[in-house]
């Protein structure tokens, strides 16, 4: 299978009478070139979903496949899939204060061999940051930092892109620009992209919307135009 596939995934925290089902029988397929949104209240399991999809957390049961590769294998193999196949975009985008934009984007390539990386400077140009490749995060606006964070997530040519609250710090116009960028990159590179969001403006950019409540994922209203 291509894209991202979750089959009957269950993740529990705690034991005895204090068990929380963070993910309760979650099944989901995100195809290549597709962007889905996941909405839901705090504590619903959205972070858990990203952690499992990204191979950071191993579920108690069920299967997770990234580009056909089962993440159930050994930690070493999972680490490789994380490094080569998964891109993360964080809310605060975790840029390192001392590094220039170009060095931030290059960073994921320094943790181990990546088969077919993109050129960091070309990628920065593609996300509209070519002219600020030598700036450090404090010299960039919120929207610009988010673009650098996106470029950093794309440099390994991931097949799955996991995005956590990409617009939390942005005004509406910047939010739309960032979403357009994410959707364009997803289509152009055939990624399977999952966006966790509280922002209803984000939904119309996405192909499908899912709602998460108490660890259960259900198809939400399709708001894409
Ligand atoms: P969301 O991202 O939607 O806010 P989370 O995935 O963070 O939800 O959490 C889902 C549920 O799992 C919540 O009830 C949360 O309290 C619980 N949970 C998350 N991480 C842990 C943990 N490390 N230990 C115990 N419970 C956890
Ligand atoms: P955006 O267009 O993303 O909303 P702003 O309106 O916040 O950006 O900022 C406008 C311009 O000012 C941007 O091009 C950005 O590079 C620059 N800028 C913002 N903050 C700083 C800073 N602390 N140091 C240098 N330049 C900055």
Quick recap of the structure?
With 225 residues, the protein is an alpha/beta fold. The chain has seven helices and ten strands.
Explain the overall architecture.
It is a single chain. A hairpin with a 6-residue loop joins strand 1 (4-13) and strand 2. Helices cover 30% and strands 26% of the residues. The longest helix has 18 residues, at 172-189. It is an alpha/beta fold. One adenosine-5'-diphosphate binds at residues 138-144, 174. InterPro entries: AAA+_ATPase (IPR003593), ABC_transporter-like_ATP-bd (IPR003439), ABC_transporter-like_CS (IPR017871), ABC_transpr_LolD-like (IPR015854), MacB-like_ATP-bd (IPR017911), P-loop_NTPase (IPR027417).
Biggest sheet, strands in spatial order?
Answer: 6-7-8-3-9-10
Bound molecules: adenosine-5'-diphosphate
* Overall geometric form: globular
How many helices? The count is 7
**Percentage of residues in DSSP E strands:** 25-35%
N- to C-terminal separation?
27 Å
Q: Give the strand tally.
A: 10
How much helix, percentage-wise, in residues?
Answer: 25-40%
**Unreliable segments (pLDDT under 50, ≥5 consecutive)?**
none
What do the pLDDT scores average to? 93
Indicate the radius of gyration in whole angstroms.
17 Å
Secondary structure class reads alpha/beta
| Largest beta-sheet characterization | 6 strands, mixed
Query: Would you list the SSEs in sequence order as H and E?
Result: EEEHEEHEHHHEHEHEE
């Amino acid at each position: 299978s291509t894209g991202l596939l979750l089959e009957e995934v269950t993740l529990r925290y705690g034991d005895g009478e204090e068990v929380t089902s963070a993910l309760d029988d979650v099944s989901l397929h995100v195809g290549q070139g597709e962007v889905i949104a996941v909405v839901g209240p705090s504590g619903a399991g959205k972070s858990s979903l990203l952690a499992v999809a990204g191979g950071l957390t191993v579920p108690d049961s069920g299967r997770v496949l990234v580009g056909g590769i089962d993440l159930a294998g050994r930690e070493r193999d999972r680490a490789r899939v994380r490094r080569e196949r998964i891109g993360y975009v964080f809310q605060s985008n975790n840029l390192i204060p001392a590094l220039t934009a170009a060095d931030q984007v290059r960073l994921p390539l320094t943790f181990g061999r990546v088969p077919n990386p993109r050129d960091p400077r070309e990628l920065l140009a593609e996300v509209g940051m070519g002219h600020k490749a030598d700036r450090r995060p404090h010299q960039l606006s919120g929207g610009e930092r988010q673009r650098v964070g996106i470029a950093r997530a794309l440099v390994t040519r991931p097949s799955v892109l996991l995005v956590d609250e990409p617009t939390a710090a942005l005004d509406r116009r910047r939010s739309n620009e960032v979403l357009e960028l994410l959707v364009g990159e997803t289509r152009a590179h055939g990624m399977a992209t999952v966006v966790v969001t509280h922002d209803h403006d984000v939904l119309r950019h996405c192909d499908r919307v899912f709602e998460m409540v108490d660890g259960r994922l259900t198809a939400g209203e399709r708001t894409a135009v």
